[in-house]
Amino acid sequence: MAAYPPEHVAAGLLSRIDGLGLPEHRSTPVAHVHLTLAFIGETRAAELPIVSESVSRSVSGLGPMTLTPNRLATLPARGVPRTLVCVAEASPVLVELHRRLVSRLVRRPRPRAEDRFLPHLTLARFPPGVNPGRIDAPAAVDPFVVDRVRLVRSLLKPGGAEHLPLDEFELRGA
To answer: What angle do CA 173, 169, 121 make, to 5 degrees?
Structure first.
């Protein structure tokens, strides 16, 4: 499950990478910049209608949410960073939607509190052996509204993940 920023927001975030002096990395394509709401895991095609119905119930009553990009940072917080992300503020609607999706769909929630939900958009990945050091910089991008979320299938390929949209759900409110 994912929320996608408007294309101009994704492009603006990616343009911030240029000024950071990053070592070797692979930038996320503009169309693939997203905020993962919940990772469902392997799901058989026969289960997709049940998953879609569950997502539909999860978004029920939730209106559009404003996502506020706060800062650019490297993750994970411990060990060698593997990704550059834009951390977003955890708005009440975002937190509630995440809670609903996890309770309905995630088979193995993360047990440790520090491994739990950190709203972020992945902007770049670093190859093994490359250590970019710690990065913490202002995002310098305006908040944006998310009025729909997508159920996507992620196919891992040598050049990076490919995201195939399976279903889309509007955040309409009550």
So the answer is: 100
Residues for the chain: how many in total? 174
Would you give the DSSP letter of residue 100?
A: H
Domains and CATH numbers, the chain: 2-170 (3.90.1140.10)
Per-residue pLDDT tens digits of the chain, which is 174 residues long: 999 999 999 999 999 998 899 999 999 999 999 999 998 888 888 999 999 999 999 999 999 999 999 999 999 989 999 999 999 999 999 999 999 999 999 876 655 544 578 999 999 999 999 999 999 999 989 999 999 999 999 887 877 778 899 999 999 987
Q: CA angle 163-63-99, nearest 5°? A: 65
* Residues in Cβ contact with 42 at an 8 Å cutoff, skipping those fewer than 6 apart: none
Q: Which residues contact 50 (CB under 8 A, 6 or more apart)?
A: none
User: Environment class of residue 174 by beta-carbon count within 10 Å: exposed (0-12), middle (13-18) or buried (19+)?
Assistant: exposed
What's the whole-model pTM score? 0.89
Yes or no: say if 94 and 67 are a contact pair by the CB < 8 Å rule.
Answer: yes
